[in-house]
Specification:
Layout lengths: L11 E12 L2 E8 L6 E2 L2 E2 L7 H13 L1 E5 L5 E8 L5 E16 L11 E5 H7 L3 H11 L1
Parallel strand pairs: 1-7
Antiparallel strand pairs: 1-2, 1-4, 2-3, 2-8, 5-7, 6-7
Helix pairs in contact: 2-3
Length: about 140
Amino acid sequence: MAKEILGHRPASLQVGALCTRLRDGKVQVMLITSRDTGRWVMPKGWPMRGRSLSGAARQEAWEEAGVKGHISSDPIGSFRYDKRLDGGLSVPTDVLVYHLRVDNTSKTFPEQHQRKRQWFSLNQAAKRVDEDGLQDILRALIR
């Protein structure tokens, strides 16, 4: 367990699903808009009791993006960002990223009225997201 040092809080942990599909032999990534600022992000959320970390990432992909598929059991990478909490406080948050190969995209899903979703090329997705670490993960997949 990380210790709190000189008033600095250890990072929180979230899990995310990098949702991909193949179209015309090229990888596409689904990004969704965040509920608060509308910027492009990947589906992610907090670990869930009774689910593995990858299982929680798969559940977030369903709730936030309406996609289902096969998810990796091990993370393909991680990144850190400042998560804004209710009330305006930001906390450093580490995100473990799991690869989800999308098999099914549903028209109806739990957060369909709260978010937009769109497929992007890897290069376009890397340009749309703000988090440097997520950009790095996407660019590594281009090679």
